[in-house]
Write a structure and sequence with these properties.
heterotetramer, A: alpha/beta, disordered C terminus, B: 301 residues, mainly alpha, disordered N terminus, binds adenosine-5'-triphosphate
Chain lengths: 617, 301, 497, 317
Amino acid sequence: MSANPDRADAPVVDIRGLRVDLPDAGFDVVDEVSLRVWPGEVLGLVGESGCGKTTVGLALLGHCRRGAEITAGEVLVDGRDIAGANDAELLALRGRVVAYIPQDPPTALNPALRIATQVREVLDAHLGDWTAEQRDERLREVLREVHLPSDDAFLRRYPHQLSGGQQQRVTIAMAFACRPKVIVCDEPTTGLDVITQERVLETVRELCRRHRVAAVYVSHDLAVVSSLADRVAVMYAGRVVESSSRDELFANPRHPYTRGLLRAVPDLDGARSPVGIPGHAPLPGARTEGCFFGPRCQLCSDECRREFPAVTVVGPGHEVRCHHAHQALPGEAARVPQPAQALGELVIEAQGLSASYGGNQVLHGVDLGVLAHECVALVGESGSGKTTLARCIAGLHPDYEGRLLLGGTELAPRARRRTTDERRRIQYIFQNPYASLHPRHTVGRSLAAPLRLFFGLKGSACARRVAELLERVSLSRAAAESFPEELSGGERQRVAVARALAAEPAVLVCDEITSALDVSVQAAVLELLADLQQQMGLSVLFITHNLALIRTIADRVAVMSEGRIVEVRPTQAVLEAPEAAYTRELLEHTPRLDPQPSAVAAVLGPDPVDPVRAEPQ
Amino acid sequence: MSFAGTADDVALAPIEAVHARRQWLETLRSAARLRRTRLGLLMVGGLVVLAVVGPLLAPHSPSAFVGPGLTSPSKVALLGTDSLGRDVLSRFLHGGRTVISLALLATILGVGVGAAVGMFAAYARGLVDGILMRTSDVLLAFPQIVLVLLLVTGAGTHLWLIVVTVALGHAPRTARVIRAAAMEIVERDFIKAAEVMGESRWRIVFGGIMPMVTSPLLVEFGLRMVYSIALVTAVSFLGFGLQPPTADWGLMINENRLGIIQQPWSVVMPVLAIGLLTVGTNLITDGVARAAIGLDRRRSA
Amino acid sequence: SDEPQEAAPKGTPASGTKPKQGGTLRAGISGGGASDTLDAHHSSGAAEESRLPQLYEPLALYDHDATLMMVLAESMEPARDARSWDIRLREGVEFHNGKTLGADDLIYTFQRILNPDDPKDGVGFFGYVDATRLQKLDARTVRVHLKVKSATLTDDVAQYFNGIVPVGYDPRKPVGTGPFKFKSFTPGEESTFVKNENYWRTGQPYLDELSIINMNDDAARVNALLSGEIDAIMGLPARQVPTVENNPELRVQIAEKTGVHQPLTMRMDKAPFDDVRVRQAFRLMVDREQMVQQAYGGQASVGNDMPGLPDPMYASSLPQREQDIEQAKSLLKAAGHEGLTIEMVTAPMYRGVLESGQVFVEQAKAAGVNIKTKQLDTTGFFDGYGGWTFSQTFYGGRSVLGQIGFQYMPDSIWNETGWKNDRFTKLIAETRATLDDAKRKEILFEAQKILHEEGTLVIHSFVHAVDGYKAQWTGFNPSWTGGPLGDFRFREVGLSA
Amino acid sequence: MLRLITLRIALGVLTLWLVSVLVFVGTQVLPGDTATAILGPSATPDRLAALRKLLHLDDSVVAQYWHWLSSLVQGDLGTSASAGVPLSEILSSRVQNSGVLMLASGLIAVPVGLGLGVWAAIRRDRLADHLTSGSSLVLAALPEFVIGMALVLLFATTVFQWLPAVSLLGPGQAIWSKPQAAVLPVAALALAVIPYITRIMRGSMIEVLQSDYVQTARLKGLPERTVILRHSVPNALVPAIQVTALQLAWLAGGVVVIEYLFSFPGVGGLLVDSVTGREITIVQDVSLLIAAVYVTLNVLADVLCILITPKVRTGIS
Ligand SMILES: Nc1ncnc2c1ncn2[C@@H]1O[C@H](COP(=O)(O)OP(=O)(O)OP(=O)(O)O)[C@@H](O)[C@H]1O
Ligand SMILES: Nc1ncnc2c1ncn2[C@@H]1O[C@H](COP(=O)(O)OP(=O)(O)OP(=O)(O)O)[C@@H](O)[C@H]1O
Ligand SMILES: [Mg+2]
Ligand SMILES: [Mg+2]
């Protein structure tokens, strides 16, 4: 893997000092971005959401979303400056020289056009001098290359008639159809399950290699990038803060953000617990003076607060923008594994649960129980029925057969039909904290609702309890008066946890509660949940499709596939010796941060042993 | 703003007393910053003021005869006389109250009922939704003007009847719009969350769903108001609405349409006023709609 | 009194020259609707009034000058006891289908009108004719037996909706003896007629074709005339008279002396009008001159609370009642109705009604009377007709005696105010029995005096009939009845030579 | 897909049936009936009774309803109570005239409205957009009779005298034989409808232009024409079709006021007259007709949307 930045041949992509502004709002989205990519090379562009990855990716095609504008810098693609190109030149470049694989294929494909039309029109637009037969031939060829059928019946399909993976392959086919020199992949695998993701990644990798295409691969997932990229650039708040070859970056990260990010990534193999970075990344317009990472940085000094660090070269092809690139991170205090609490009897139990949507049965006789003080992780690929099971338990999906028992008594299928106490004892935390809190209610009002409903609390008694709850989830009391929109995703999810705790429940059902969060924030929320579970002796049903998470949190793991539980065993046992073939497959395809765990372990040091972090800073 | 980490002691106010910024106020406030809204407010505000204080300014009684019919503007009658020889200016100054108040009442009633029905239908789903929507389908298919004709002819001309018929036309339309908006809301997790906790239906609909549909509701209110004004005046214009000798803009057009060549003022003034009123209302509505979209976009960002 | 007269083509055009033959007239009328009909014996208003006379003709009719003229009857003679009449039909009159008018047709017509299962409008006028005893004396003479005595059969049949139709008449194939033959008909829209070449009045009609177009909206009608879409319109609103007059291509026709009136009705058996002083007060509240000016734009003559202005029998020597607010107030006070509030029921039944109502409401304020208007639609209004304590109505022009028989007798169908005054009733009976003209006039004067003093109607004005037409036409002769467009006698109309 | 369409049509029929009940009940509440209207104030009780018997007005309401509906289904619109002519005769020319009015307004309004909408969306925030949006904002607000009055003042009476202020037609005279009579009413209706179509089309077009798939199309290097015509317009049409159908359906009712204003011999004027004249059967027939137009247009719009939305079209099969 040649990560040599001093390659003799010219880079095919050369971005110099790119700045994209929002002229109306009066601030920049990205600035001072310089990147180079050589033919046949994959550059991984990582960063948390909102840091400007897509903006940079689109700038490579000379495109800005409405309201944004390239205001400085050059974007040289194959020697031509895209930033200064006129409309006609852009038309000729896009799709032909530089192509784009969009983030979300269901919305990126035109729902009203057949896929053949959508692939074919790229060829028609750019290969006008070819004969129709030649273009037809290329159409089928490129479909074969992305491992899609190329028969007429398939060509006549509409996007909605394809699976998510197939849709993504169509967009890849469109991008590769004219054999461009550069492709920009904007998180092409987000939203795909691990197995599909792996196959799509393989396809991209293979095509880039075969056609010597340079790729800019945008992703927020370090594990994915580590398995694909030759070189990696880390972005934070609109700036590239570190870039280097992949191996160097993972082995020797220098920016505190990169290091924090690596620590926050949950690890499937190791016994290392993910550690979050306090706070959250600022959005454009909310960035501070000096180093944007300063407020979250443990090394932050006055210098950092004053000015944004310039580029420092710390090694061959390894550039960092940090005043403290050479300083070691203080030893992170990490959690002591709590002595396992004695597990009690079954708190909640599903017996032979079969659920369906209309005529479509998605759960087939599921038996699963959670003991008192126990955390059971429910894993399985997307669409396997995890959410459906959770909704049944919560009383949101009454269309099921079989029985649900809470402490031995059968529950009514519909939440409304259950007693207040039954409703109180089961609490459900939703996947998306952006959707589960009423946007027009203050945090205090959201928290007051369960207090009013379950304990009849009002007035200052209620307010006092709200304040307690907020403190319990490490939020300030002042947060009671804020609206969800004023909180970051992680803070919102804490509020959601607090709301569930307000009911003093016996069982918490957590449906992918971290999947909408950035890695650095996800780790912090997981820590909080694990602490609470231990301290309050809650039973938790923790649903996730991210196997890497379960080691940290779960006592037992239930693996679900196509509406059936295929394996339920203690976590350690499942991870080390999976019994079901399906479990094995899942484990195999889960991307790992680095093929050589020892290297990472060396960087991150030994597992921190400090007591629980009560509050992130 | 970040609330993480700091445990500073804030005085504990009862939750209910915590001042919740209302979405609609916020929308209106940001709408008021748009030029078109201001223009609309100016137009509507001016006409409302005119309607309210107009009668005090009127030089004559709106029903008094000040000269022969259809005379041109003179010292006595600044805008001339209408077909019966009454002062056009005085009648014009008196004629706004009925239009504005009837239209407003009809809009409040129709949009209120429609919104409640729409939200309940969206929330209840299934049979209740089916019945409510079928009913609204029937009401929608029933031509509104026929409804007005039948009811007014059947029960005689009563102001409340005009209000009710116009409202009856609005309710199903509003119900559809609000239902469509609420459909997506009821699927959101925060509604599910309230449901799981066992909140009452009433609270879910009015506390949970309603604050989420204030933008479409405001826009709908504006649109319906425009339509109310048009309909109330059209009914009077057709001669099925307000009764003489009421001074009313719609009626004035109908009464004096014939004399438009000799004495255009008695028609032009009310036509102008109605036009300004509806256009102004529409400008405000448009501003509100834009502001609402802007706020929502900022919020989802 | 109503001497049978020889009916000859008369009515020399009041204006313009004698018409020449040919041409198509498009006349705009109002009052039509979906319930329009061509049935010879049924009328729901002005629309039928305009159409039926073109197709059908009755035995007799009033002429423009309020005299009675024989039409299809050659003569109508009462028996001495007035229990039967002999009717002799005109000779050589042909129906549109070529059949000659005869006694059987008359009998058939009377039976059709008087059919107890489906009585027609005429019943209200000569319902006293015994339909079972219609005696054919010869080919064109019929003896009609009456259930009660009547000396006024000639007056009673003199309505346009009593046209003689042939035996076996089918309204869907309208056949009569009129000056025009049926061509097409769409209710509420338009009807067209073509010249009856065999019309018995030689020389008439002048027109080749006639088209009567219904346009209820005044503005539409006026616009149509101004833009030349049509040739003549009835009911030109007073305010439009100058516009039309100023147009050199158009003419205005005003019939100034008509009996058309739009009175206010006060039910005398209901409070407060059971007190004659209240009725008198109401009559004193009207400023009639202002009424004429404001409500009718000057196109009306002041009324004196009695009907029949153009009739020579009209009591014109009675003093004209003037507005007297003080007097009205004191009468009301005496009756205990100071500051009275009352509801006036009305409907847009005819142009001018709503307007005059509004003027009255305004004028009543001066006397401290607060009138609330309740406007119904016309059908709704007439559905409850006779039940309204205080309302408005309208009447076309009739003779004094005709109107009295129509409205003022205890058994009159139109007696919407419940007017009943024994002395009045007696005087009218006396009038009817009296043969001497002068004597009759005297008695009738006495009766009219009672109406003037105690009556239940406020007859504030007599409305002019105003028509507009293109200057090239002639023959629209003003009629005392106020019947528009020369009483719809289109047979007299033609292009000026 | 067929199932979906069938379901939609069945719902339409159900709606129509409910409307028919409502219309029938509605017409029963009118004071006075056909008989009083025909005979007028001079009616004596015997004459009324006789006529009522003749017109079957004494039958039970249910029987009357059944009689009306069953003959209607068989294509018999009933008979004019007074004129004795079949209502189909009275109605047919009126329906034709109104139909032509609606059709002409629709044929003008739909393409103009859609075209302006697309144009304004493409020129978003530029002068063309501001002009279009501004004028459609104003026009959409103005009541149709105000627009009509303004047109009359402008083109028929006060400013220019180019066109007739009223639309007079002979019986049986078809509107197309006198097109100038239809110009102003058609213009008034079209002007009342266009802004709505423009606004929805602009809005939905803007949404589509901001969609990911249009961005994808642009990033594929497709010419702007293709991006607009192939990728944007067809997808933007779906919501526009619904609104357009509603607007065209509105025409069926809105025609009443405009017909009154122009004395246009269509169903609108007939309706007003018939209510006053208690020609109940006409009121019922016309109301149902307007409702049928409304329902049919909506069903058509839905079917059209089903047909142009591949997801729905192929989804259920
Ligand atoms: N045209 C625009 N108008 C307004 N805001 C914009 C625009 N383009 C980008 N932004 C803002 O700039 C920030 C960076 O956006 P961008 O989409 O590039 O981030 P990203 O790293 O791709 O995020 P994600 O991981 O969520 O896709 C975001 O907060 C976004 O809201
Ligand atoms: N509302 C719904 N109507 C119909 N089918 C549904 C609905 N929700 C889910 N399904 C289907 O039920 C199956 C199980 O869905 P479920 O959401 O329970 O899966 P999941 O395991 O939670 O997936 P993910 O990891 O993507 O959240 C899927 O095939 C899905 O398509
Ligand atoms: Mg992105
Ligand atoms: Mg799920």
